[in-house]
Amino acid sequence: MLETRLDLDRIRAARRVIDPIFLNTPMYRCDALGRRLGCTVSIKLETANPVRSFKARGTELVSSLLTEQDRTAVVCASAGNLGQALAWSGRRRGLRVTVVASRRAPAAKLERIRALGAELMVVDGDFEMAREQAVSIAQARGVRLVEDSLDVETCEGAATIGLELASAEDADDAVLVRESSIIAGVRMLWEHTGLVVEPSAALGVAAVLEDPGRFAGRHVVTVICGGNVDPDAYRGWISA
Q: What whole-number distance in Å separates Cα of residue 189 and Cα of residue 209?
């Protein structure tokens, strides 16, 4: 049996503490995109929420557990999406949230973190330098450091998407895609669905583009996991 840190009972319990605004996200069949890709395509829209990504499913769980423990503050390093989600969830529960980000992160994402009330600290280096600063802050202040994907709560929060797709077939494989296919997927989602998405949200479409024969005639659900984009970069992607 495959070993995993995730626990199905905890994932089910997570749904009870995640704000309903992030749950049961829209899913609909997109015929225009399906015709273009040669398969049935359904869109699972994780961007129609206050932080424009699925990340709040995890930060809602983290923040809920922290308040149960009478903790008052939390810190993370973020390129944008996690920081926005943690700021939103923390503000809702009265937590002091500090986000450390690289100056290279998209300006729009940094501005939204500030707008959500978090303390934003910007470093001149890359994400790893931001993470090192976040670790130092957590140690100095004695507060919880949240690390996306490393902390099981962020994973189990995200896994609630899987509960909503429970009728889908189990995944038993991985697909590697090229950057050019991802950008093509971003462009196709704009052209055929009108959705503005960041590259990670186009991975499902990119996978079909890489190997159309593999998916021909099948039903593919692609999760639109984020829509926080840098406007200048996005214009370049859709005009490429």
A: 12
CA nearest to 224, candidates 178, 193, 181, 180: 193
Low-confidence stretches of the chain (pLDDT beneath 70): 1-4, 167-176, 240
Ordered by where they begin, the domains of the chain are 14-51+164-239 (3.40.50.1100), 56-157 (3.40.50.1100)
Q: What is the pLDDT of residues 126-149, one digit of tens each?
A: 999 999 999 999 999 999 999 988
pTM: predicted TM-score of the whole model, two decimal places: 0.82
The residues, any chain, with a CB within 8 Å of residue 215's CB and separated by 6 or more, are 37, 38, 39, 207, 208
Query: 166: burial class by Cβ within 10 Å (0-12, 13-18, 19+)?
Result: exposed
**Cβ(21)–Cβ(202) under 8 Å?**
no
**Amino acid residing at 112:** R
Q: Give the bridge partners for 42, in sequence order.
A: 29, 221
The whole-angstrom separation of Cα 139 and Cα 122 is: 18
For residue 102, the SS3 value is strand
The pLDDT of residue 175:
67
d(CA 24, CA 102): 33
The amino acid at residue 164 is E
